[in-house]
Amino acid sequence: MTELSTKGKVNNAQKLHVNKGLLLFLLLFFIASALILIPSINHNVSSSMSLINSEGGKVYQNSSQYTTIFDTLKYERSIHILAMLLVGFGFLMVFVRKHGYSSITATFLVVSIAIPMYVIIKSFGGESFSKPTISIDTLLYAEFAAASLLIAIGAPLGRLKMDQYVIMGLLFVPAYIFNEWLLLESGIFKGFLDTGGSIVIHAFGAYFGLGVIANTLSRFKNDEACENDSNSNQFCLLGSMILWLFWPSFTSAIVAPERVVLTAVNTIFALCGATLATYIFTKIIRGKIEIEDIANAALAGGVAIGSTCDMTTPGYAMLIGIAAGALSVIGYSIIAPKLEKFIKGTDTCGINNLHGMPGILGGIVAVFITGQPVTQLSGIIVTLLVAFVCGKITGVVINLLGKKAIPYSDSDEFFVEEGSIDTLSTSGSSQKLG
């Protein structure tokens, strides 16, 4: 008995040593990442600073003045998007009872990884690849990458250690940038339409996340199901409403100035359509209103309108939203259990239902505007393949770091208040999403 106890202590000490080693490595990595952005090392940063300093001494007139005004307006939308990322996504994912600290912390971490990593990678490369480091447009594109990453972590949410979210983020960003370049910058898919990111942001994040969880069901088969309760669901609804509120800023962030208002109106009509369809279909299919549907499927219109947000009209936008809301509810209520068996993995947040299928719907609708079905459909298929394969590789890597000690709980990694997190049990309100 004493020998077993000693071995247990040794194993715990070894695990602690490995974790500290990983944390030290990550610290050095992030310090190195910051050093890469020093002007004397990074010519891109040096050029950006020189431009800012030279423009600062000029009297703005005509086009220069207008550029400054437009950049300031984009800055305001970038802050709206940050609110979506941190508050919207963060609270949307606290529906998991006893996992709130972990959900919020993971949100903080992956946003803090995605934005600088995107900028660092994009500050290098050839003329067709590099973006200015100090630019509002680059910041917005970096926030889009962070949004896609937040979508991806929704699939394994509650079943990863905090270190694994960090590693997942580091592996996700290069894959996201590659797919973004392939579809939008390489010229291979010239004419591909995806202004608000239905495919590049939403579908990519969703199927990357599904790749991460594929064939992982057996690792967690003896664990308790994901639980929620009234309080966690209400926080989730708060996150959903914040996302709904700021979604027009997300879709209009990079559109031409003269199309910002049209984009905002289309987005709001699509969200309205999805919300109304969610209410109708959740009652038809389930008999009563399922709060999971209201918190998630009501946002599906914002996902689906992304590809055509600046090209369609309010009536069509509302129809797209209605179709997306209906599809999302069907996903949560009918398709999700079948998908779980097919990929042998549990999609905790139901990202396929909110971001995957509505994203594909939005990309397909764009065919009617582009008139290039081969280009549009090829871009969608390539995105799904790149996302799933890269997600699967990422899943294999992060699984090497072991398994979360207590799934869907804060207690194994956080100091928690006495009695705030009880032992996992099958009693109380229990629901496994996706």
UniProtKB/TrEMBL annotation:
Which ranges does the record mark as transmembrane?
A: 21-41, 78-96, 103-121, 141-158, 165-184, 196-214, 235-255, 261-281, 293-309, 315-335, 356-374, 380-401
Keyword Protein transport belongs to the record? no
Query: The Ammonium transporter AmtB-like domain covers which part of the protein?
Result: 77-403
Q: Name one GO biological process term.
A: ammonium homeostasis
**Entry's Gene Ontology molecular function annotations:** ammonium channel activity
UniProt GO cellular component terms: plasma membrane
InterPro entries, A to Z: NH4_transpt_AmtB-like_dom
The alphabetized UniProt keywords are:
Membrane, Transmembrane, Transmembrane helix
The record, for PANTHER family, names:
AMMONIUM TRANSPORTER (PTHR11730), RH50, ISOFORM D (PTHR11730:SF60)
**What is the protein name given in its UniProt record?**
Ammonium transporter
